[in-house]
Design a protein that fits this description.
Radius of gyration: 25 Å
Number of strands: 24
Shape: globular
Oligomer: single chain
Order of helices and strands: HEEEEEEEEEEHEEEEHEEEEEEEEEE
Largest sheet: 8 strands, antiparallel
Strand content: over 45%
Amino acid sequence: MKHFVLIFFVFLLLPVTLSAQVALTGRVLSEGEPVAFANVVISDTSDAIVTGVITEEDGSFSLQLEQGTYKVSISFLGYQSFEQQIDLQDAMSLGDVVLQSAATELEGVEIIAKAPLIQRKTDRIIFNVEQSVAAAGGDAVDALKQAPGIVVRDNTIAMFGKSGMRLMVDGRILQLTGDEMFNFLNAIQSKDIKSIEVITNPPAKYEVEGSGGLINIILKKGLSDSWKNTISAAYKQIELGEITVGNNFKYRRGKVNILAIANGLFGNQRYLQDQELFYSNNTWDIETTQERDLKNISGRVLFDVNLTEHSTLGFQVSAGYNRPFWDDIANTEIRNNAGQIDSIINSVGVRDSKVDNYTANVHYYTRLDTMGRNLSFDVDFFNYKTQDIRDVLATTFLGDG
């Protein structure tokens, strides 16, 4: 009898469980042709990312979502983004979503056939940055925004279908997260990147926790028997201005390969944010203004020696110096259900951070056979120091409501 009651309740709850998720499908096209590897991002009503997927070779996509209201954003480099809000209660198809080209006319450009822009392999998707006009002229963060399967928003990097991710440069994991990782990426110019690998099924040797993935940024190497030094500077003006300066030295002769990079980022940024939070007995309207003073210097030196045709021994050292300073001003109006102001909270805050990081790596690599088997050995040292001071002063004013 107990087993009968248990089975009865299982079958009673099963339809509820099955109906909790419904399918969202569609196909992405441009000029009648399918658009493969386009990013399909699903956000909730607060603009937080819920999930995402990339389109298949035929431009199709399929997602399983809880019932609710969502915003669908579809993007692909060289095209204008598509956005649509949906109320998903039953299985829904968006049909054929047509992306409009955002390409501008270029004069005096010679097109040479090279590697495809995007390649799919068993465990990864490869975005060949050096083949992308859209990713040129920016930094590594700008290049990641164009990569399939990756979303960059609010100083966070997310990979579709993964609970977390680790960042690598030339196959070596960087022990950086959060703002430090973004400062490091901002210091790498996209013109120095050969490709970005979005690794959805990392090899066991990387020990990625949970269901995380890997992003591997592969930098360009110098030509054989040559050296090159490049000095660059870029100024960006939006509401406030910021400047990026850098020096890139490459040397490659015989069995020796040397790479030295130094970059600096200085300037100011301003962020404006409006929020409206609803509670059972009141509503909070929050307006926030944040200004950031940026001071970031980073450098990297790599030395490799080809011991044999199939073996390489080398080391690399990198360092970062980051001194961001933030000013925050927030005004919060708390209103009752009648729309009257109960109280106002004015807050002023500052954040003074000091971050220093140093990394060193010794590596050895040898190819064992033509079947792709290899042996690699790495020894890493990482030193990270941080100081984060935050002060907030809040003043509350009571209303007449």
